[in-house]
Amino acid sequence: MQLDVFTLIPHAFAWLTEQRPLAAVLGSELELRLINLRETTPLRAGQVDDEPYGGGAGMLMRVDVVAAALEAVYGGVPAHRVIALTPQGRQLDQALVEELVLERRVTLLSARFEGFDERILEHLASDAVSIGPYVLSGGELPAMVLLDALARRLPGALGHEESGVFESFSPALGGELEHPQYTRPAEFRGWRVPDVLLSGDHGRIDEWRREHRRSQAGR
Ligand code: ADE
User: Fold this and answer.
1) Backbone dihedral region for residue 136 (phi beyond 0: left; psi -120 to 50: alpha; all else: beta)
2) What is the number of the ligand 1 atom nearest to the C-alpha of 111?
3) Distance from the alpha carbon of residue 194 to the mean position of ligand 1, in angstroms
4) Contact 142 CB / ligand 1 (< 6 Å)
5) What residue segments make up the domains of the chain, in order of their start?
6) Which residue out of 6, 130, 137, 141 has the highest number of ligand 1 atoms within 8 Å of its CB and is therefore the one to mutate?
7) Nearest one of 3, 63, 61 to 34, comparing CA atoms
8) Is the confidence at residue 173, as pLDDT, over 70?
């Protein structure tokens, strides 16, 4: 998968790219390009934002700036999915991650400031995605959230191939949450791991896990 992120703070992504799962797939299953929107701005002094027409607080990412960046990289508006990160977008969930991971190329647009000029969403982006019903100070964290969620679904991202298949919200679990998990010690301060998990009886263990999948919601 080729993933291009248009951002004003490319260096913000450095930490993430050095960690698993991203580090494990970079250069093989995932080709990541971090593109600085300021480098191709047609405006003077690196300007990328402006005041909203009609007044109001904050600054908006300009449509001509995003168009110029897309033009510089793709020669126009690309045919593949261009996702603007905005609280007004479709809320990200595992189903959307599974849908996007099938794409060969994806572009993410992240804005600082109050958001995008609406024409960016109408004419330059194909999708608008929100990572939740709250407002952050920019699209970098949302872009990183999406990047991480996508990277862990690529082949070779996780040490154990199955760990991505059977985790919470995955189709293999029918979209349910994962069961509770425990590791050593079997008892700590009197807090015991459920006996069934220590029994070695895989039939009973599977049954216990199935029974305990739903009960975690909201915890
Ligand atoms: N930009 C600011 N807040 C956001 C959110 N919740 N989701 C995606 N992009 C955002």
Assistant:
1) beta
2) 1
3) 40
4) yes
5) 2-151, 176-216
6) 130
7) 3
8) no
> Residue 131: which residues within 8 A CB-CB, separation 6 or more?
85, 91, 92, 141, 142, 145, 146
**Cβ(22) – ligand 1 distance below 6 Å:** no
Q: What is the C-alpha radius of gyration for the chain, rounded to an integer number of angstroms?
A: 21
98-147, pLDDT tens digit by residue? Answer: 999 999 999 999 998 789 999 999 999 999 999 999 999 999 999 999 99
The reported pLDDT for the residue numbered 113 is 79
Superfamily for 2-151? SPOUT methyltransferase, trefoil knot domain (3.40.1280.10)
Q: How far apart are CA 96 and CA 51, in angstroms?
A: 33
* Per-residue confidence (pLDDT) for residue 164, from 0 to 100: 62
Helices (H), 102-179: 118-119, 140-151
How remote is the CA of residue 214 from the centroid of ligand 1, in Å? 29
Mutate which of 7, 92, 135 to test ligand 1's pocket (most atoms within 8 Å of Cβ)? 135
Domain 176-216 matching CATH 3.30.200.20: the answer reads no
Distance 177 CA to ligand 1 centre (A): 24
Q: Give distance in angstroms: CA of 206 to centre of ligand 1.
A: 38
Q: For residue 104, what are the CA distances in angstroms to 29, 81, 109, 206?
A: 10, 10, 17, 36
Q: Please tell me the distance between residue 144's alpha carbon and the centre of ligand 1 in angstroms.
A: 11
| pLDDT tens digits along 26-59 | 999 999 999 999 999 999 999 999 999 999 989 9
The pTM assigned to this predicted structure is: 0.90
